[in-house]
Design brief:
The structure is a single chain. 16% of the residues lie in helices and 33% in strands. Strand 4 and strand 5 form a beta hairpin. The protein is built from three helices and six strands. The radius of gyration is 14 Å and the shape is globular. By secondary structure, the chain is an alpha+beta fold.
Length: 150
Amino acid sequence: MTTAAEPGSGITRASLLKAGAAAAITLAGVGTADALTARGVPRHVRRSSWEPLVGRTVEARAGRMRAVRLRVVAVEDLASGPVPTAALSGSEDAFSVVLRGPSSPLLGQAVVPIRHPTLGTTPLLLVPARAGKAGQDYVVTVNRARPPRA
């Protein structure tokens, strides 16, 4: 089950694509971050690991800042990518996670350690999205989908 972001959240296709472009950098450093499934896929890059966390909190720590608690707001399909969008609908391998934190301190776009008891601690690219009365939204994009071979 996919949980959508709030209407008018300000998360645009362009911001998700920008985050996705940098996601490959993040995924390069995750080999030892978490326990693996039988398929050898770390928990933090599986949609099914994030969906039960909607409404729960994770912690992010940027540099020497104290840990910032972020609430998992939504797990969403990617807008587009190297694989047609319809093929990615509900994909275990291609999705974005919307996190909401306080308005201050503001975390900049960076690869930061994200911690949750189920996922462990792992570096993920955190991209600021919409700021509003409810706080600051961030997006983490996971895209392990591969285009079909010609």
